[in-house]
Specification:
heterodimer; A: 272 residues; 6-stranded mixed β-sheet; 36% helix; disordered N terminus; B: 300 residues; 83% helix
């Protein structure tokens, strides 16, 4: 991790910088020549067809897959490395495990094992963030009983409780019902407004991206286009990115807001 | 080295006799008359909570089959020990089975991480390999079935101070791990990437837990036997899972049921009715009894 010298009290100039990043799995190149710097304090969306390498890019950024090129992290205000929060794609776990939402939160927040009880400070911090994501009464609920959307909000609370400066979100609302999706996206938007997190959001849902992300990176093995969302998501760019699915996506983009079901219905088939 | 020897000496000549004497005074004559009975009970008090605590993770991570494969690796582990014992008298099947179990555990964990084969396929291959290897060695080197029976069914009524010392050490190791690693293992069990993003060394914890599990299983074999050792881990934890709503609840219920079935089973096997019944089997039957009750309560 590179520590750039940032003068005290100055706003960090960048949060994350990728230079010529490539990922090869086996002999197959998944990503090539990715150069990209998410805008600080903004929601940056990564879009692209299935198999474009969106999740792989996020995994490379997290250091979970080997990559070539350079990935640099900015420094936070106090000169320390940036704290990174991560919200995974739909958690696939054994829903019968006896574990309350508070158990889960405290497992991430305290050192003493949760079988010795919840540390008072960890409990308070967890409750604060649960309140923030609209889960005031969830503390004692079993984690496995939450709906998909509620679980994603708990995962968001978990990531936020670590006081990150940059948030990485991998398809945070895939498989979540429409109401849950709305709630989650509004929450992200309000967090970004209030606290100026730098967010990197992988999404295949263009209606979410157009409404919530200020910046967008179009990915299909390489960077196809990037920039401000309004300027970047043009019909030509989308055509180049998704090839045959253009009509559908252009359509979705125009009728944002009331086309969720539509998008999801066709979403599964795009890019295959 | 000399401190280690001094510690062993302190254990076998001072600490253990003191505990043994205390047990002799506390227990009614019927249960505490002979040293082997007191040792069996002490072994239960040490091992049952250890197995139950590790079992919580085994049940929640769906590793029962893995645990079974480790215990069956004792076929080969013991066979190798018996074979070596013929040439080197220092070789002890109790030790070779632990070492072999650790190697098999790491082998499974490694293959699972580096191939895309499903968990149960990888374990199934190892399972068959170790059992076949054990049978091959034993049949080749002549009948040793009587020696083998100890390990198949367990031999809790035949423990010495070294056995109990080993159980104590294991208990300390598991306690340390459960204090230092319990929370992190929760996150690793839910999602690798999430754990990693919070600075947890996922692979390290994966291997550490695998090693610890292999250690617990192989050390417990002399108590419960190859065939039943997984039950000591899985059944109390499964009972606890039926009753608990929180992570802490499951942990403590598992330990309670582990201790309860261990002690109840051991004492029951001393009774006149069950005089010739294997103690390991009685312990497991007791735990199954509690499991059935918990399952009935859950579905009410």
């Amino acid at each position: 991790m590179t520590l750039n010298a940032v003068p005290d009290n100055a706003a960090p100039t960048f949060a994350l910088r990728l230079t010529n990043v490539g990922v090869t799995l086996g002999a197959r190149p998944i990503l090539e020549h990715i150069t990209f710097e998410p805008a600080v304090g903004q929601i940056n969306a990564i879009i692209g067809p299935n198999g474009a390498g969106k999740t792989t890019l996020l995994r490379a950024i997290l250091g979970l897959v080997p990559y070539t090129g350079r990935i640099e992290w900015g420094a936070s205000r106090n000169g320390k490395p940036l704290r990174v929060g991560y919200v995974p794609q739909r958690l696939d776990f054994d829903r019968g495990i006896p574990m309350t939402v508070m158990d889960f939160m405290c497992a991430g927040l305290q050192r003493t094992p949760v079988w010795l009880g919840h540390h008072r400070q960890a409990r308070q911090l967890a409750q604060t963030w649960l309140d923030r994501v609209g889960g005031k009464d969830w503390a004692d609920q079993p984690l496995g009983r939450l709906s998909g959307g509620e679980l994603q909000r708990v995962l968001l609370a978990m990531a936020l409780s670590d006081e990150p400066e940059i948030l990485l979100l991998d398809e945070p609302v895939s498989g979540v019902d429409v109401t849950g999706e709305e709630l989650f996206c509004d929450l992200l938007a309000s967090l970004q407004r209030d606290s100026r997190y730098t967010m990197l959001l992988v999404s295949h849902d263009l209606s979410i991206v157009t409404r919530h992300a200020q910046y967008v990176l179009c990915l299909n093995k390489t960077v196809k286009c990037s920039g401000r969302t309004v300027e970047t998501l043009t019909a030509e760019n989308l055509k180049a990115l998704y090839q045959q699915e253009v009509a559908l996506y252009a359509h979705t983009g125009e009728h944002e807001g009331h086309s969720h079901g539509h998008t999801h219905h066709h979403g599964g088939s795009c890019g295959k | 080295m000399s401190t280690a020897l001094a510690t062993i000496d302190l254990w076998s000549s001072v600490i253990l006799p003191a505990i043994d004497e205390a047990l002799r005074r506390i227990l009614p004559t019927k249960w505490g008359e002979y040293q082997f009975m007191r040792y069996a009970l002490l072994e239960c008090l040490l091992l049952a909570p250890v197995c139950a605590a590790v079992g919580v993770k085994v049940v929640n991570f769906r590793m029962a089959f893995f645990s079974d494969a480790i215990s069956h690796s004792a076929f080969a582990g013991v066979a190798i020990g018996l074979l070596l014992h013929e040439s080197f008298s220092a070789a002890d099947p109790r030790m070779t089975l632990v070492l072999f179990g650790l190697i098999v555990g790491l082998g499974i964990a490694y293959v699972r991480r580096t191939t895309d084969l499903s968990n149960d396929t990888v374990i199934g291959v190892f399972f068959s390999a170790v059992v076949a290897l054990g049978i091959a060695i034993v049949t080749r080197s002549g009948a040793r079935t009587t020696q083998f029976q100890r390990y198949l069914y367990g031999d809790i009524l035949n423990l010495d101070s070294a056995d109990l010392g080993l159980s104590l050490l294991l208990g300390i190791a598991v306690l340390v791990f459960m204090i230092a690693g319990f929370n992190r293992l929760i996150l690793v069990g839910l999602n690798d990437e999430l754990a990693h993003s919070r600075g947890i060394r996922v692979r390290l914890y994966d291997y550490l837990f695998t090693l610890l599990l292999a250690l617990v299983v192989t050390v417990s074999i002399r108590t419960a036997g190859i065939l039943l050792v997984t039950a000591l881990l899985v059944i109390p934890a499964a009972t606890a899972r039926n009753l608990a709503r929180s992570a802490g609840g499951m942990f403590w219920w598992a330990i309670a049921f582990g201790l309860l079935s261990g002690v109840a089973g051991t004492l029951a096997s001393f009774s006149d009715y069950l005089a010739n019944v294997g103690t390991g089997a009685v312990i497991v039957l007791a735990s199954v009894f509690f499991f059935i009750i918990s399952a009935l309560l859950r579905h009410k």
